[in-house]
Amino acid sequence: MSYVITPPPVAALPVRGSDDLFPVHRIYCVGRNYAAHAIEMGHDPNKEPPFFFQKNPDNLLVGQDFPYPPMSSDVHHEIEMVVALKSGGKNIPVESAMEHVYGYAVGLDMTRRDLQGKAKDLGRPWEVGKAFEHSAPCTALVPASEIGHPSQGAVWLKINGETKQEGDLNQLIWKVPEMIAFLSELFELKAGDLIMSGTPSGVGPVKRGDQLHGFVEGVGELKLGVV
Predict the structure, then answer these.
(1) Domain-embedded: residue 3
(2) Which GO terms describe its molecular function (predicted)?
């Protein structure tokens, strides 16, 4: 059987220390998963269950500068730890959730904040603000077999050497096992799924010419320019 059009290439992330690639199935993003960020966005973190939105696998950007997107004049940075799943399922118990984790990466949830804000005001979905081309810069994956499962450690982002975001993995409201368990009640998780775990406070705009340097302790660092 043949296809009526040429299938697009499989979206994938490199794996540190390997020539093999990690094929990406879906990208789930956890919203407002640091209390300080929830507050800066005008929400009470003590009253909200976790919620999720998605980016597309081909939104990933690896080893390249971030091209400033069209239709926006207010693009924000959001630094995050990325969790990669090697297996999935439905209704995964919290106690066994980490058995499904392949590894971790450092990622950016780039956001057209002005378009997202308009969508919020109109009660519309966020895709125009979140799921645009190149909106998910990411490092190579680091297998959990090498680094374990980071649950604490510094998370920060600098722009042109100045610290803009700063937090710690231990400040996540919903921890990685809880994210996986909760997501698996809503979706059937699959091998190849990525979870962007949320961002600390301090999100803000980028402009062309900026140099971004993101860091997650125990995982790695992400450096790229805005062009």
Answers:
(1) no
(2) acetylpyruvate hydrolase activity; metal ion binding
CA atoms within 13 A on the CB side of 126: 19
R_g over Cα of the chain = 17
Residue 44, token pair as written in the block: 């009470």
CB 188 within 8 A of CB 70: no
Q: Is the predicted pLDDT of residue 75 greater than 90, yes or no?
A: yes
| Token reading at 208 | 């062309």
78 in a structural domain: yes
Indicate which CATH number applies to the domain containing 49. Answer: 3.90.850.10
CA dist., res. 188 & res. 184, Å (int): 6
Q: How far apart are CA 175 and CA 197, in angstroms?
A: 8
The pair of structure tokens assigned to 65 is 């500068």
Kindly state the percentage of the chain with pLDDT values over 70. 95
For the chain, give the mean pLDDT: 94
**Mean pLDDT in residue range 77-99:** 98
Domain tally, the chain? 1
Range 5-10 average pLDDT: 95
Per-residue pLDDT tens over the stretch 138-178: 999 999 999 999 999 999 999 999 999 999 999 999 999 99
Q: What is the rounded distance in angstroms from the CA atom of residue 118 to the CA atom of residue 112?
A: 10
Task: State how far Cα 168 lies from the chain centre.
Answer: 16
Backbone angles phi, psi at 61, to 5 degrees: -130, 120
Q: Alpha-carbon distance 221 to 213, whole Å?
A: 7
Residue bearing tokens 């995050």: 80
